[in-house]
Each structure stands twice: as structure tokens, then as C-alpha cells.
Design a protein that fits this description.
single chain; alpha+beta; Glutaredoxin; 4-stranded mixed β-sheet; two-stranded antiparallel ribbon; 6 strands
Length: 140
């Protein structure tokens, strides 16, 4: 299965998402988006395919969101996209693209919605929360 993750290795949510993909027996294409940001066209497509608004896809925490005045409700989607492309830390993460769909995997277990049911056993997130049981089934 062809899977791409827009990843930040410094982000726990992104690391957990990557490991859940691997737990499904898939080695994804890993794009460290801070070094290799998506094009405008790719970003617009990912946001639309994930059924998000541009504002929902922008990262507030740990970014210059407030300092840049991006909380201004009068800003257009194009202005927000310009800011995200200029400073990729403003792109929320991790975005995951599979043949089953595109998701902003926050929380990380959202990725399970677009992965095949091929998990290789239990999965526990870095914070200790168990997401998959010993049979690789989602814990609800």
C-alpha cells in the first residue's frame, strides 16, 4: 500500500502515527515537511481531501501563529496558505495520505481510519495509552 506521511520527528503525535502505520506492516514514504514542504497545490489538495478548512489545518501551538496575526478572522484562505508555505511549522501535522483517504492524524489514532486492518499486535502510544490490543484490534 502506498502511504505518505508529512512528518515532524520532534512531534510525539507524528511519531506515534508513523509507528502505527509501520505496525500495520507498511513502510510509508516519510516527508519531513519542515525540510521539504508540500507545494501549494499539494497542501490545498491534502486539506480538501481531509475535509478540513484551511484554518483547521493551520498549527497554532508551537508556531508563530499569534505573532503573525493569523488569528485575524478577516484573513483569507489564500493569505493563510501563503503563511503556511512561507513558514511550514504552521502546517499542522501529521497529514497521512493512503488509497483509503487523507487525514490530519490528530489524535494519532485517526490514522487507523485510513489503514488496512493488518496490524501486527498491540500498539501503545508514547504516553502509555494503548490503542490496539494484542490481536491488533482497535481499543474503543
Amino acid at each position: 500500500m502506498d502511504v505518505t506521511i508529512y512528518h515532524n520527528p520532534d512531534c510525539g503525535t507524528s511519531r506515534n502515527t508513523l509507528e502505527m502505520i509501520r505496525n500495520a506492516g507498511i513502510e510509508p514514504t516519510v516527508v519531513e515537511y519542515l525540510q521539504s514542504p508540500p507545494s501549494r497545490e499539494q497542501l490545498v489538495r491534502m486539506i480538501a481531501d481531509a475535509s478540513l478548512t484551511v484554518r483547521e489545518a493551520i498549527r497554532e501551538k508551537g508556531s508563530p501563529y499569534i505573532e503573525l496575526g493569523l488569528d485575524n478572522p478577516d484573513l483569507t484562505d489564500d493569505q493563510l496558505l501563503d503563511a503556511m508555505l512561507k513558514d511550514p511549522i504552521l502546517i499542522n501535522r501529521p497529514f497521512v495520505i493512503t488509497p483509503m483517504g487523507t487525514r490530519l492524524s490528530r489524535p494519532s489514532e485517526v490514522v487507523l481510519d485510513i489503514l488496512p486492518d493488518t496490524h501486527k499486535g498491540a500498539f501503545t502510544k508514547e504516553d502509555g495509552e494503548q490503542v490496539l490490543n494484542a490481536e491488533g484490534k482497535r481499543i474503543v
